[in-house]
Design a protein that fits this description.
This protein is an alpha+beta fold. The protein has helices at 4-25, 34-49, 63-66, 95-100, 144-155, 173-182, 193-201, 203-206, 217-230, 243-251, 262-265, 317-323, and strands at residues 55-61, 76-77, 84-93, 106-113, 124-130, 163-167, 185-189, 210-216, 233-239, 260-261, 272-277, 288-290, 293-302, 307-316. Strands 1, 2, 3, 4, 11, 12, 13 and 14 form an 8-stranded mixed sheet that branches. It is globular, with a radius of gyration of 19 Å.
């Protein structure tokens, strides 16, 4: 276990990291250049991480999949002091949402003890996420109807009253059809499946009961870190688009058809998760500029205590400009 005093410091430091990522990306929301926004968020997060008291190793991230600016696999971050931790990071979860000025983009980071997080270069995984009441009743290898009826029973609802969040992709069309055959509601999202997973796990906050379908592997690990702290449940399986990706999984030492449970995705006892809104969504409010301040809203989770904090913060705009988080030449949204 990481000793308690360091725990408290890491929680605050992680919050500052995602705030920096969101504040750096926010001036470019709605400007149509997702790579530029991503680059600014990556640089801000890398700089913020550099002064954190930790010896961190990035074990999974989004840059390689998207061929975008990135914190790369194996990158050492932090100031080199103890504790030694795994880092999962997505500087902008929802780059297309940011570029288009659409709801739900966040900056997100998770930490756990070294060697405790699942790592892979396979870009996608199939996921099944539920909240606390349906913990232990799901099985990813069983049909969609079987799972939805068990979830409905655990929730004390008719299956038709369930709401399932699904990432809107061609590869998820079959799952969408099966959900509709059962009669449950579907909330389709165009991006942001960490947020979708959290909505499912935080069902009383969101009205979402389940997440199904395939999405990013990085998002899967980040979601698992959060879900372990708030008591939901999740199963996943690597999703292969071709034989090359299946071979990659085998070379990494993974069993291609293995169902991954929460402990497989993140086995840590001291897990920290932070997310800051970039554009306002159902999970978090986005960055907003008010006279001399920039407003942010963040979620901070800690597994040791099970605490979830929603943090509203006001950042002086002149200080953001001095730090380079708000370029002089970019007009405020």
């Amino acid at each position: 276990m990481i000793e308690p005093r360091t725990n408290r410091n890491l929680a605050l430091e992680l919050l500052r990291v995602t705030e920096a990522g969101a504040l750096a990306a926010a001036p470019l929301q709605g400007r149509g250049n997702k790579d530029a926004a991503d680059q600014r968020a990556v640089e801000a997060i890398r700089n913020a991480m550099a002064v954190v008291d930790m010896k961190g190793t990035v074990v999974i991230g989004e840059g390689e999949k998207d061929e975008a600016p990135m914190l790369y696999f194996g990158e050492q971050i932090g100031n080199g002091l103890e504790p030694e931790v795994d880092v999962a990071v997505d500087p902008i979860e929802g780059t297309s949402l940011t570029a288009s000025g659409l709801p739900g983009a966040i900056s997100v980071v998770a930490l756990a003890e070294r060697g405790s997080m699942f790592t892979t270069h396979v870009p996608y995984m199939q996921k099944l996420v539920v909240g606390r009441r349906a913990r232990g009743v799901i099985d990813l290898e069983m049909p969609v109807e079987w799972n939805l009826r068990r979830i409905a029973k655990a929730e004390g609802l008719p299956v038709q009253e369930l709401t399932v969040v699904v990432l809107e992709r061609d590869r998820n069309q079959e799952i969408v059809a099966q959900i509709r055959d059962v009669g449950a509601r579907i909330k389709l999202i165009t991006a942001g499946d960490v947020g979708g997973a959290l909505e499912a796990a935080l069902e009383m906050r969101s009205g979402i009961h389940c997440m199904m379908g395939s999405g990013g592997s990085t998002e899967g690990v980040l979601a698992a870190c959060a879900i372990r702290t708030i008591g939901g449940d999740m199963q996943a399986k690597l999703y292969f688009r071709d034989d090359k990706e299946r071979e990659l999984a085998t070379k990494e030492g993974h069993k291609p058809n293995k169902v991954l449970h929460l402990d497989d995705l993140c086995s840590g006892n001291d897990i920290f998760f932070a997310a800051t809104g970039i554009t306002t969504g159902e999970l978090l409010k986005g960055v907003r500029y008010e006279d001399v301040y920039a407003y942010t809203q963040s979620m901070v989770l800690r597994s040791a205590s099970g605490t979830m904090r929603i943090v509203d913060a006001y950042h002086p705009i002149d200080k953001l400009r001095a730090k380079g988080l708000l370029p002089e030449q970019v007009a405020l949204p």
